[in-house]
Amino acid sequence: MKLLAVVLALLSERLLGQLRWWNRLDLPALWHRLLAPWLPAGGVRAHWLAPLLLWGPPVLLTAALDLALAGVWFELPRLLLALGVLAACLGPEAFNVRVDAFLAAAERGDEAAARRAAAALLGDEAPAGLLRQAQAVAAALLYEGHVRLFAVLFWFFLLGPAGALLYRLASDTARRGHGLPAALHAHLRRLFAWLDAVPAHLFALGFFLAGSFDDAWHAWRRVWATELGLAERNRTLVVVTGCGALRHDLGRDLDDHGEALRWVRAARALVLRAVVVWVGVAALMTLSGTLA
Question: How confident is residue 65, by pLDDT bands cut at 50, 70 and 90?
Answer without folding.
Answer: very high
